[in-house]
Amino acid sequence: MPKVSTLLFDCDNTLVLSETLAFEACAELANEILASQGISDRYTGPALFNEFVGQNFRGMMSSLAKKYSLSLPPDAFDDYVSREEDAVIGKIRAALEPCMGVDAVLASLADTNAYEMAVVSSSAGRRVQASVDKVGMDRYFPSNRIFSAATSLAKPTSKPDPAIYLHACEVLGKQPGECVAVEDSKNGTLSAVRAGIKTVGYIGSYESEEQDKMRGVLEQAGANPIMKHWNEFESLLKQLESPY
């Protein structure tokens, strides 16, 4: 395995506490879609999160379309995706906060100048950019270091597809084996692991009663090690680098 040169961070609930905000907006639109198709089922934000965490809205809607045999023409589908982006960005600009402890870690990593750093997300590029701008992380992640499965690829996709990680590696000129990813979800972990990237699982954004369960989920998906707080990251990174 080559020496670690590059750190690839998921965004939602890994760098920033965005998932609750995002799934509130997603639930509103998902329920509108279900109502328009004459389906009585309705979702809350938490219910949608439990079923689809780690997927972007396009992937989520594709899953719902399959589950309920929805008839959504491509133009209507794209319109809902655009509306979801706008709704989530509005919530992000109003109330987004960083994950606890991440600011100090990013500052420390930037000071060492030892690694390239990038964001690799399923979410739309506009949403990721709004997130890093809101919490001041744009100084670490300029626009050319933000990779979105929804908008950076010729064919939009979503994690657990490894395509966005492979794309990020290609653009950055890195081999997967010299990268370390940080992910909080099963789908995100699978995406990174399937791309051949060593993955640290982060469970700190989950409620305390969910953390043990998520530890098992992320470990099963291939994350190793697992961290509960960002203050663990640099020591875990040194452990990953210990063979060198």
TrEMBL record:
NCBIfam families in the record: HAD-SF-IA-v3 (TIGR01509)
Taxonomic lineage: Eukaryota, Fungi, Dikarya, Basidiomycota, Agaricomycotina
Per UniProt, which keywords does this protein have?
Hydrolase
The record's listing under InterPro entries reads: CbbY-like, HAD-like_sf, HAD-SF_hydro_IA, HAD_sf, PGP-like_dom2
Q: Where is the signal peptide?
A: none
Q: Which Pfam families match?
A: Hydrolase (PF00702)
- Taxonomically, the superkingdom here is Eukaryota
Alphabetized GO MF terms: phosphatase activity
Do the record's keywords include Hydrolase? yes
The entry's protein name is Haloacid dehalogenase-like hydrolase
Q: Does the keyword Plastid apply?
A: no
